[in-house]
Amino acid sequence: MALSARLLALRGSPFLYKLPPYLSALCVLVGIGWILLLPLNEYSRQTYVSENAILPGQVHTYFGGSEHNIFRAFRQEVYALSQQPEDARQAGILKILADSGLKTASQPYAYQVAGESINGTNVYGIVQGPRADATEAMILLAAWRNFDDQINYSGVALALTLARYFSRWSIWSKDIILLIPSDSTYGPLAWVDAYHSISIPPTSSRNISALPLKAGALQAAVALDYPAGPWGQRFSSLDILYDGLNGALPNLDLLNTAVSIASGQMGIACTLHDHATHSDSYRDRLSVLASGLATQSLGHATGPHSAFIPYHVDAITLKTVGDGWHDEMSLGRVTESVFRSINNLLEHLHQSFFFYILLNANRFVSVGNYLPAAMVLAGSFTTSALGLWVLSGRDDVLVAPLAGGLAKQKVEMETVKLGGDMALVPKRSVQTIERELFVPALLLLGVHILGYIPLWLMTSLNRETLALGLHLTTAVSLILPISLATTIRLTRSQAQILQSLSLILLGALLATLATLNFSLALVIGLLASPLAFVRRSSSSLLTAAQALSLAITSPPVAVYAFQRVFYPAAGLEKLLLELAKGWSAQGVWLLWVAWGVWWPAWVVGGVVVGSGVMSARR
Amino acid sequence: MHLSTLLSLPASLALLTLATVYASPHSYTEHLHLLPLPQSHLHAHFNFTATTPLSAYESSHFRYFPRSLAQILQHTRTKELHLRFTTGRWDDESWGARPLDGTREGGTGVELWAWVDGGGSKTVPEERWSELVNSLSGLFCASLNFIDSTKTVRPVRLFEPEGDHGSEKGGLQLLHGMLPHEVVCTENLTPFLKLLPCKGKAGISTLLDGHKLFDATWQSMAIDVRPVCGAADGGECVLEIQQSVSMALSIPRSMRDRHDPIPRPAKIEDVQCDESKPWNGHDTCFPNAVTDEPAWTLSKVFGHAAKGACDLERNDQAFDVTLEVPSDRPVNATGASELTFPSTTRRHYRLSASSSFDLSLPACPSPVNPMALFTPPLYATRQIAGHGQERGSMHTTLRNPHAHPLTLVYMESLPWYLRPYMHTLRLSNGKQEKLYYTPALDRERGTHLELVLTIPAQSTTTLTYDFEKAVLRYTEYPPDANRGFDVAPAVVRVLSEHGGFGGSYVRTTSLLLSLPTPDFSMPYNVIILTSTVIALGFGSLFNLLTRSFVLAEEVPPSPLAGIIRRARDAVKGLLGKKTGGDEKESKAADAQAGETAEAPSLAKERTDGKANGIANGHADLRERKARVVT
């Protein structure tokens, strides 16, 4: 009872009304600080293989000997095929697969995005496990062109050699599907989409044929990226790519298996995110963490494996890096051993983490340790929103006298009768303002609906007009809040309600997003953090400062800055095209989060600041 | 005279019994059929047939018929039994039609169907079926006891009895069960061989070795028991048991050394290189496609040679082994006499009782012409499409390669946790003649779906339907919960063209259905526990912060209650007027109306007082402030 009495007493405290902005600021600082702590040993862990059945590197690998001669011939053949037209090339690959005893099929696909067409054909074959019961399958992927648009000569040749070699073993408990898509992003996407549906009705943006040949439930996929030409190129280390679409990640066990086999059994160093030198220092760990956050928040495909992960098929890409002394046979044996390990699985990969941040190939942060960072950031919006809601229902004069001391000012008093008791209280403290919700709610809804216009523009304009569309969006975005503030005269209370509703929505959406794509929630949360602090102010200097900070952190400006910092060479047009492709073909949420969640919240912030100018002028 | 009759009695009795033995077929035959298949495979079909007269069976007198099985059949009143143990896949695109039209094979895992004498009752056959599967489970070391009511269906058109049941036929009930997840292995082979009269110690059954049999690309062990009434035997009926093992072996894999079966990369000298390639060299070798059938010997393919014949009352013309190869192919046989028949492609061998039998064939440059193989009656594939843990869809493709339309019976036996939406059942390019459907009951009965379809000539038909995945109780998950659940193969019976008895069978592969699986790990439990504690703590704090505490008499009546009461009074008033209304009633109504009229004003006062403010919980704070001011 004592506790409840105290809590009740706290409710009227003026201190509470001033607290929310400081709490929000604390939340933002804690969120940033939290991320910076993660690379420390205390907050991260050494990776370990959790699933006992995998037994990585426990088998002897036999890939070698005459297979090397065959590999060289296949590499020459792949090179010869690369000189031929598309049809002859596919026929050539299909013939090699069929001669190796695989069941073969092909699947043409076409995408139409932003006036660009992507066409290709997936060529694939199935090694039917001689004693398998056709219920499960694993995939060996080698895209004809790798993610950097180079022809994957050695990767394809190695996959062909391995398929021939695998078909002689009778140990497979799962079928092995060898998939050779024309490109690294859309081919696997079309294939895996078709694999999980009966037929995909063609639309204006895509036309994917059904698969004539299928196997059982897909368990895991491993992609090879080894673009060395017909005369070979030895490599120094393997870069392991693991990011899936929309920031989904493969089970950590698959990654650990590949790392432990490559480094433990074959002595090949493994890297992440192209960090060739990793001294395991705080700085290196932080930089890998940042790269991980960046790719995860973008949510776009990072390799041929990405398309599989949304379908709960764990997948990684093994990409050769540098110039060293490991040859194709080493990579072949790593792949063989990884497949033997996956083959050991009795259940779908489930034992280890699906949510993690990697610091290097054998150090990770688990979800319990990093998730609070994004949650706390989202909490900063909620805190401000609750504060604003309470203030919106009060006369703002009330707070000042209470805080400053009531005795010094003359206050109108009123008698309050309650049963037999009577009390004298300041008149203002018992007056409440009726919250006028209609206009703010309507405005908020309208702005959210308006957000779909830039989203539509950014995803359906042609390649040439995309940049123009962004310029236009920027201009409109900067003008819109001021024009809204001038046309819809909001009272102080209405402005507070509007901001409160918008922030509470933003906080809730970001907290939800954090459980799905942590990095995206964190990045958007950081970029949008000024929104929790802007207030309607009658001081023109303060208003100008707030407007400037909002302009700098506006969604369109962020796109420009992103292009300047990360893709200076590619050009804005290319970046926008990739983003549009991501939305239309890959189904990436990034643009929706930017234009449908962040942009409306930003516009509302602008309206609130702008309404201050209006009130001052009045 | 007396003496002679006395003496002759036992002799005549003995003669009589002997005569009955010879006349009544207590017989046993065994036979192995070998047929090389394309892609260096070999099909071997072992058949062991034993019979016993029904009269001997009923008096529990057995010679070749296995007593252990017979007793089970007698006890459970099973009149016809078909049991299958199958692993692997028959590659009908490369190898053509299935052996014996698919009548002696089952779906992946274990399949069992039997005609049980029901005695006219509805529950009795189920009890007998349950006894049968449990007894067979013990006999064959298989989990047949898991064929419970949820896995049992009663097919209507799919199977017809193979035996002659005569007048009994009407009372027989067919029950069918499948265990797709059952792994068939040596422990099932051993009891299978134990049922044979020679028990795998002599005759062709010595070739059946677990290592080789279960390394086969496809194998199916079958047991078929049926009564046969032949006119030749004076109308006496016999009970026949056919035990058969059908397998497709990969010759190169089977020819590997038993002590070192690892398929290491071949020596480079042994790889046939395509020397026409410009880059062919000492370290670069483009392998030629292997189309030759390698040399093979029976003893290497099956691990060892056949040890003599299982010499039980064979007639002189019987043969044990048939090899089906072109007549110009050299074959070297030892330990057997070759019997020549006019047939051009078949060679028959009769094993000698004492020496071991072996066959050896040199490599054949021109392997079996795939075109000479029979075209399968139908190609069937079945897949689960869709993703996520809530719904999925089943997708079956049936391709008719023939120039005439096919009529077929398609049966699916689905587990109860896969709930098909029958309204989504779509058949493209075919005609549905009939549909037999028994809906599932949760935890009691699976879905039985049987369709009679007609597929036009040379066309592909797809059959699709959507389904919902049930959420299981957590104790219903097996230890390997995340593997998924096996769904039994669909069985297709292609009815013969003239529409008569028989037909050939095709089975699809089994499927893996992933159901929503809870996380059974410790962190999950910890999360649940912490969330509960946090929810409790948050709930009580939130309660204290937001609720206003008032005295019971201060609670204003809800405006809704007022409205309801007013409406009720209005109705009552109306009713009162209609009935003419006695005074008491109208008075009571007036009193109530007065009360309700009063209530809203009171409520308004009170809510005003409250809205002015600050909730009543603030009273102490306000008092304090008031004191400060004064």
UniProtKB/TrEMBL annotation, chain A:
Concerning Pfam families, the annotation shows: Gaa1
Segments traversing the membrane? 21-40, 370-391, 437-457, 469-491, 503-528, 589-613
User: Would you name any one GO CC term?
Assistant: GPI-anchor transamidase complex
Q: InterPro entries attached here?
A: Gaa1
A biological process from GO: attachment of GPI anchor to protein
Q: Which UniProt keywords apply?
A: Membrane, Transmembrane, Transmembrane helix
Protein name per the record? GPI transamidase component GAA1
TrEMBL record, chain B:
User: Which chain regions cross the lipid bilayer?
Assistant: 522-545
Q: Where is this region: Disordered?
A: 575-630
Q: Where is the composition biased (Low complexity)?
A: 589-599
Checking InterPro entries in the record gives: PIG-T
Q: What is any one GO biological process for this UniProt entry?
A: attachment of GPI anchor to protein
Q: Where is the signal peptide?
A: 1-23
Comp. bias (Basic and acidic residues)? 579-588
Keywords attached to this Swiss-Prot or TrEMBL record, sorted alphabetically, are:
Membrane, Signal, Transmembrane, Transmembrane helix
The source's domain of life comes to: Eukaryota
Q: Which GO terms describe its cellular component?
A: GPI-anchor transamidase complex
Among PANTHER family, the record links this protein to:
GPI TRANSAMIDASE COMPONENT PIG-T, GPI TRANSAMIDASE COMPONENT PIG-T-RELATED
Q: What is the official name of this protein in its record?
A: GPI transamidase component GPI16
Protein source organism: Cryoendolithus antarcticus
